[in-house]
Amino acid sequence: MPFTPFHFGPALFFGLMLFRYIHFPTFLIANVIVDVEPFLILFFNPGHPLHGFFHSFAGGSIVAIILALLMVKMDKYIQNTLVTLKLSQAFSSKSIWIASFSGIFLHILFDSPLYRDIKPFYPSDFNPFFNTGFFTGSDIYLLCVLLFVAGVVIYGNKYKDKFHA
What we know:
By secondary structure, this protein is an all-alpha fold. It is 62% helix and 0% strand. The protein has six helices and no strands. The model has no long low-confidence stretch (mean pLDDT 86).
């Protein structure tokens, strides 16, 4: 995505659909953290491809490991925010690790059809997802917006009773 907030659509929708199985805040962060890379490249090294190593499954795995380790340590602090949002959940380290890897890999899969400079199977230049004709850029953007709307509806319906308690 050229604009990280688009990734919140798939993150919210799939995070709520898989709420019983994955750590929700880790999944949300994992879906957007990879885009720190293009922002750093824009700021420090204009002219370098925006989507580098961390937009590959190998680089994304490194980010996922670091994120999971941090989230395991920080979860008790995050739980206060989740209580406020009526999204409390019992967690296991396993659910954090799954959320971290699946969120980052989902990000890479959503970006790979859009950008020529993404090499999901780094060090190979092969990107089987780019420009396949199956999804256009506007299709992916629309899908992200629709998933965000669906996620908001799911959140509202699933947790409306909790807000009136």
